[in-house]
Amino acid sequence: MEGRGASWPNITPYRNSDIKNLWKHVPRSVKFLILIFEDTDSFIGTEVMLDLHKLDRVQLRCVPSQNEAVFKLMGVSTFPSMVVVETDMTTFPLTVTDKTRESFRKTIKTFLSSRHISIPKDELLKSHEAPQTMEIADLLSLMAAEEESKKKIDIKQMGDVVFYVDLERAVSYSLKHEVPSHKLISGEAFTALKDYLNILLKYFPMSSRTMKVLDNLKSSILKHTKEIRGEKVLEYLNKFDDGEDSVFTSHDWIGCKGSKPQYRGYPCSLWTLFHTLTVNAVIQNQQLDSLEVLSAMLGYITYFFGCEDCSKHFQEMASRSMHEVSSPRESVLWLWRAHNEANKRLSGDSTEDPEHVKIQFPSHNTCLLCRNKDDSWDVDEVINHLNQMYGKQNISYL
Predict the structure, then answer these.
(1) In this protein, which residues make up the domain named ERV/ALR sulfhydryl oxidase (predicted)?
(2) C-beta contacts of 133-138 below 8 A and 24+ residues apart
C-alpha cells in the first residue's frame, strides 16, 4: 500500500473559523476548492469526495453545520449546499437540483466543464457502480488513520495553539460527569456551580447555540434557590442539548490528546479552559473584578474537580498568593505562575506523558522573547504570548 495516501481526499471536516486556512497544504495544481456544507450525520460530502478523489485541479472539503462562522461567512442557509472558492478567495454557490449524491456529482461535473476542466470517465461512477458500503467504510477507516497521523505531526509543528474542541470537551466533561457525580450540591458548592456557569457565559468564546444551551441550563439551576441534585443538572443539560445539533458531542481531544488514554485529556483541557477565560475576560473588560475568574475557578476545583490531590495543591497555591492579585493583568499572570508551579511539581511523576513532558511554559522555542538573557521571565512578553495564544480570535476550530 506504499504511496496510497497521496491521492486520498481529506475527509476531515473543516472546523476552523478562519477561511484563510482553507488553502493550507493544498497542492498548487488545485484551482478550485469546493466546500460541501452538510449536517454532521450526512455522508454526501464524503461519498462525493470518494467519487472524485483523483481530480488534480479541484479539491473538495466538507464543512459541518456546527461551523457557524464559516457557513454564515459563505452565506449558506440550507444543508447540504456547495460553495466554490477560487485561489483569490472569490466565492460563489453551486446550486443542486436535489440533495442526492448523484445530483452533487452532476453539478460539479457541469461546473468543471464550464471551466474547461476534463474529468476522466472512470471518475464519475454511475449509481449502480458505486462502491459497496463495506468498501467505503474500510477506506474511510484507513484514510482516517492516515489523517490522524498527519494531524499529530501538524499539531506538534503548530506550537502553542488552543483548539476549540479541547475547550468544548472540558466544559462538556465538567457538566456531564464531574458535577452530576455529586448527589447533592448545596451551600458553597452550589455557589461555586453558579459562579462557574457565570464565567462560562461571560467569557467562553462559544457559538450562539452553545450559549443558548448554557444560558438555559443556568436559568433552570437558578430556580433552585438553595441546592440541587447532581443528576438534575445532567437532566437539564440533556434536555437543552439534545437532537442532531447537539453542542457537546464526543469529539476526541486534539491539543490535549495524550500518547495513551491515561495521559493528559481532561486535566489538560481544564487548564486550557481557565487560561482562555482569564485572558478573554481581560481582553473583553479591562475594568473587571480581578478575582472574578480565578475565584470561580477555585470554587470549581475545590468542590467538583475529581482529582483530589490536584484540588488540594491548587487550593494551597490559592491560599498563599491569590489574594495578592490586584489587577486583571495580574489574574492572567497568577494562573500562568500557578500552572508552571504545578508543572514543576509533576515533572517526572508517573502521571506525566512521556511524549508531552512537563516544562516551564512557554518554552524557548515557542516564545524566545519571553525570557531575559539571564533566563528570567519577561512578564510583558509573557502576557503578549498568553493573549496571542488564548485570545478568542486565535482559537483553532480544526
Answers:
(1) 259-361
(2) 136/46, 136/47, 136/50
- Per residue in 114-134, is it b (16+ CB within 10 Å) or e — as a string? eeeeebeeeeebeeeeeeeee
Number of Cβ within a 10 Å radius of residue 243: 5
Which residues sit opposite 63 in a β-bridge? 37
CB neighbours of 86 closer than 8 A, spacing ≥ 6?
A: 31, 32
CB 347 within 8 A of CB 338: no
Q: Which CATH number fits domain 4-158: 3.40.30.10, 3.40.50.2000, 1.10.10.10, 3.90.1640.10?
A: 3.40.30.10
CATH superfamily of 164-394: ERV/ALR sulfhydryl oxidase domain (1.20.120.310)
Q: How far apart are CA 224 and CA 231, in angstroms?
A: 14
Residue that has been written with the C-alpha cell 440541587 in this structure: 228
- Going residue by residue through the chain, which has 398 residues, state the pLDDT in tens, using 9 for 90 and above: 333 334 466 777 888 777 777 887 788 888 999 999 998 778 888 888 887 877 778 999 999 888 888 888 888 888 999 999 998 888 999 988 888 888 998 899 888 888 888 776 655 444 444 444 435 555 555 555 545 544 544 555 556 788 888 999 999 999 999 999 999 999 999 999 999 999 999 999 887 888 999 999 999 999 999 999 999 999 999 999 876 567 776 677 888 888 887 888 889 999 999 999 999 999 987 777 889 999 999 999 999 998 888 999 999 999 999 999 999 999 999 999 999 999 999 888 888 888 888 999 999 888 989 999 999 999 999 999 999 999 988 888 76
Query: How buried is residue 333: exposed, middle or buried, by Cβ count under 10 Å (0-12/13-18/19+)?
Result: middle
Integer Cα distance of 366 and 385 in angstroms: 9
pTM of the predicted model as reported, rounded to 2 decimal places: 0.64
With H, G, I as helix, E, B as strand and everything else as coil, classify residue 320: helix
Confirm if 103 and 96 have CB atoms less than 8 A apart. yes
The set of cell numbers assigned to 347 is 515533572
Given a contact cutoff of 8 angstroms between Cβ atoms, the answer to whether 218 and 198 are in contact is: yes
Query: In whole angstroms, how far apart are CA 345 and each of 267, 340, 358?
Result: 15, 9, 9
Question: Could you tell me if 159 and 365 are in contact, meaning their C-beta atoms sit under 8 angstroms apart?
Answer: yes
Delimiting residues of CATH 1.20.120.310 domain(s) in the chain: 164-394
